[in-house]
């Protein structure tokens, strides 16, 4: 298709000025046995509408036709105007949760949530498990060439010594199409640090795309005292990254963690519930890549 083929938009919805006697909302529940011949989302137009009147049939109600077309075109108008959806608990329950890749506007202006899992019933503004935050000035620009990578493998990494890097996830490629665009990475993962750490030198995360490194941290969220519970980072608190100046083409990607102190440590990437001893867990790492023009 071509941009010039964009269809006409609904400046007003169908039956916008229909009087009260000529339009009605379509109920979800079946109207069979309640109002003969009335439409519903369950039945559509019921069997009585398909029988001749002389055989006991009932003509379809014009109010129902106006009602369903009005509801459909209201949403068509909203979407054509660039309107976004917000989390709807009743709707989420009715459909079994939002699919992976669904985008919802946050209650905080200028922020959007992208679902990283299927069947997502969590309200991202109160429980961001399974959601990745997309925020800032980037939110008003077009994101293209979106690709999602997932990793469900538990990886235990034992390292010691300043500057040691452990790489739990590598060998996946992202193909950048435009030489002028920047790469946006939404990250959703969890790293569990099991050994006592120094507050002065926690590990930092490193995302490598081609020959470019982007670090996030350091963060004392990695810290664990000798008597405290294991520290962990990841999930929705993990920052998104915007990488500039990366050439177009196929880029090898990896995710690693760099030690900043000389202490021995054990890190578990994609920890299980048994590893976390009651702490929240994702059990799946997701990285979502996309290109955005500067």
Produce a short descriptive summary.
The chain has 294 residues and is mainly beta. The protein is built from three helices and 15 strands.
Q: Given this structure, which CATH class of the largest domain is correct?
A: Mainly Beta
- What's the average pLDDT? 80
Q: Measure the end-to-end span.
A: 26 Å
Helix content: 10-25%
Count of all domains: 2
Number of discrete helical segments: 3
CATH architecture assignment name of the largest domain: Sandwich
Query: Could you say what the CATH topology of the largest domain is called?
Result: Jelly Rolls
If you compute it from the alpha carbons, what radius of gyration comes out, rounded to the nearest whole angstrom?
26 Å
Order of strands across the main sheet = 4-15-7-12
Q: Based on CA inertia axes, which overall geometry fits?
A: elongated
Strand-residue fraction? 25-35%
Number-wise, the strands total 15
Largest sheet: 4 strands, antiparallel
Look at the helices and sheets and give the structural class.
Answer: mainly beta
What string, H for helix and E for strand, traces the elements in order? Answer: HHEEEEEEEEEEEEEEHE
Give start-end ranges of low-pLDDT stretches.
196-201, 218-239
How would you summarize the topology of this molecule?
Elements: H1 62-80, H2 89-95, E1 103-105, E2 112-115, E3 131-134, E4 143-151, E5 155-159, E6 165-176, E7 182-188, E8 190-193, E9 204-209, E10 212-216, E11 231-234, E12 241-243, E13 249-258, E14 265-269, H3 273-276, E15 285-292
Protein name: Tail fiber protein
